[in-house]
Structure formats: C-alpha cells, structure tokens
Design brief:
Helix content: 10-25%
Shape: globular
Strand content: 15-25%
Order of helices and strands: EEEHEHHHEHEEHHEEE
Largest sheet: 10 strands, mixed
Number of helices: 7
Number of domains: 1
C-alpha cells in the first residue's frame, strides 16, 4: 500500500498542517517521492514560508503514528517497538492528528515561473537551528541530480516521519536511506544569511538521489 504525507509545523503551542492547492496543480501532497523534487511547488512554497521564520517541522506520513502499536505490544515487544520508532521516526498523537485529523491549516498556493524559482533558490540556505547546520539549496540541487535530471529535496526527506513503510517512500537501496527523518521535529528555516558557527551539510551523507542504487534490492538477481 502507498503511504501519503502531509507536512506540519508547530505554530506556538499547536501543530498545523501545511497544504498546497491551486487551480493549475490541484492538491499536492500524496506519496513522498511524488512531491519531493526540489522544484515542486509544495517544496518551494514551504521553503518560502520558512524564510526567516524558524518553526519545528515534520513531514508526516499516514503510517507514522506510534499509537498503531498498542500498550500490550509495546510491553511484550519493547525492543521491536523501540527499533521501529527509531528506524521509521514515528510520531505521537498530537503531530499525527494535526497532519491527518485537523482542519487547522496553513494554505499555500503560489506558483513561481522558472525565472522566479532561480532567483528564489540562488543563495538560499536551508537551516536547522536545532542541530546548528545548513544546506545551500542551489548547490545541493546540482549535487543530487539523478540521471533523469531531477533532484530530491532535502527538506521533505530530512524531516519525514514514517518513511520505509509504504509504496512511494524513499527506498532503502538509495543513497543515505538511514538519514531520512534525521531532522524530523527540529526547528527549520530558510535564509539568505549564513549563520555563524553552523556546519555545512552539503556532503555525501546528506545527498538523496532517487533511482541511484547503492545496494542490491533483496530478492533481486541484480548487479549494481
């Protein structure tokens, strides 16, 4: 089954879902890798919403609720439960309900021209104030480009909750699968000003490339 995603931010004491919809594109959300290209309107709108506006962010999958495991399971299979929480970055009810049960939304709808996209992304940094690190987005886009010319956004993958449990997720055979969700729940912003003392994360540990196999898929008679 496919897993679907909604991004949520913590606005004050309340988590709020971010949604994108307009007449040209309709609603954008759906499966993780269907809307995680660096130039996807949802990605660009959220990067613009976060411009000098630091907020905790979770890209919440509909298989990501920790409450799917009842108390009996958590007690009897504690090790397996903790492993699942860690591996898939599961979330508690408040975040999950904001993503999938709430009508408390932040609507976004802007569509940029190619020229506007270039101007917006040039010199823009994706910043994690929790981990004191940053990614230069234009340089990242070039480094992450796959053989089809598309680049997977670090924003949605680094903050994803629930990856690895459904169709359309970032696959475990792709580069840096273990880094998906590493920034989940952290305070994220974008800025044209480089923060002093922060670490540049534009390195091979953070680059996601859809379709690039780094290990053999299980059950396949296949050479990389």
């Amino acid at each position: 089954m496919g897993q679907y995603y909604n991004p949520v931010v913590k606005d004050g004491n309340k988590w709020r879902r971010i949604c994108f919809s307009n007449d040209e594109y309709g609603f954008i959300g759906w499966k993780l890798m269907e809307h995680s290209d660096c130039r996807n309107p949802l990605i660009l709108n959220i990067e613009k919403y976060l411009l000098n506006n630091p907020l905790p962010l979770v890209w919440c999958g509909d298989y990501s609720n920790a409450s799917q495991y009842d108390e009996e399971y958590r007690k009897n299979f504690a090790e397996e439960y903790e492993q699942s929480v860690k591996e898939h970055h599961l979330v508690e009810d408040d975040i999950y309900e904001a993503a999938w049960g709430s009508t408390y939304e932040i609507p976004l709808s802007e569509v940029m021209s190619d020229e506007e996209e270039e101007k917006f992304l040039t010199g823009l940094f994706l910043i994690n104030d929790t981990k004191k690190s940053y990614i230069p987005l234009k340089e990242y886009e070039e480094a992450a480009r796959n053989t089809y010319g598309y680049s997977t956004s670090p924003l949605s993958l680094l903050t994803a909750a629930g990856n690895g449990q459904g169709g359309g997720d970032y696959h475990e055979t792709y580069p840096n699968y273990d880094m998906v969700g590493y920034w989940m729940g952290d305070t994220i912003r974008t800025s044209y000003e480089l923060p002093e003392g922060y670490t540049n994360c534009l390195n091979n540990d953070y680059i996601f490339v859809e379709g690039k196999l780094v290990k053999e898929p299980e059950g396949w008679d296949f050479e990389i």
